[in-house]
Specification:
This protein is α+β, with helices and mostly antiparallel strands. The protein has one domain: Sandwich (Immunoglobulin-like). The protein has 5 helices and 11 strands. The strands form 4 sheets. Strands 3-2-7-8 form a 4-stranded antiparallel sheet, with no helix packed on it. It has a 3-stranded mixed sheet with strand order 4-1-11, with no helix packed on it. Strands 5-6 form a two-stranded antiparallel sheet. Strand 2 and strand 3 form a beta hairpin. The chain is flat, with a radius of gyration of 21 Å. The N and C termini lie far apart (64 Å).
């Protein structure tokens, strides 16, 4: 009997709750980085209001939603040695949002819970600005920079080369 009750409660929770709200989240850590590192940055909402600032590399947590059925839209403004660069960051629909179709949560999950919590949206985990490398004025050569592997975004780790 206890197994039956647990099964009914679990099935009810899945049907009544939003799938993305269960599996995903409404805020995401975003790695803000630049190549080379050391750029100042300001993260601004779509309306121009700043929400975060710092120096690359940094990780900040941003909400993926601007409101009911509204994805968050940000612009990251980088500045390094007088050179400015802007990188857009816009939330995209989370694939788990469509899990509501599989689990019967179309009305409650797709139209109420996931849009209200912001879990229907997902942000990219990395924003990168690339600045042109400048040669060292005294030697005319670029400098070697050693960084911790934890500071290298996952999508670039496959391009690393081992030094023997």
């Amino acid at each position: 009997m206890k197994k039956y009750i647990a099964l009914v409660v679990t099935a009810g929770a899945v049907v009544l709750a939003g799938c993305a709200s269960i599996v995903s989240k409404s805020e995401y850590p975003v790695a803000i980085t630049s190549n080379p590192i050391g750029a100042d940055f300001v993260v601004k909402r779509d309306n121009g209001v700043p929400v975060a600032s710092g120096v690359t590399p940094a990780t900040i947590v941003l909400p993926a939603s601007e409101g009911y059925f509204q994805p968050a839209k940000y612009t990251i403004e980088y500045k390094r040695k007088g050179v400015m660069q802007s990188v857009p960051l816009t939330a995209k629909i989370d694939g788990w949002y469509f899990g509501n179709l599989l689990f019967g949560g179309v009305i409650i999950g797709m139209l109420i819970v996931d849009p209200a919590t912001g879990a229907m949206w997902r942000l990219n985990d990395t924003a990168v600005a690339t600045f042109q490398q400048t040669a060292d004025s005294t030697s005319g050569q670029r400098a070697l920079r050693i960084v911790n592997i934890g500071k290298v975004p996952m999508k670039y780790r496959g391009q690393l080369l081992a030094l023997n």
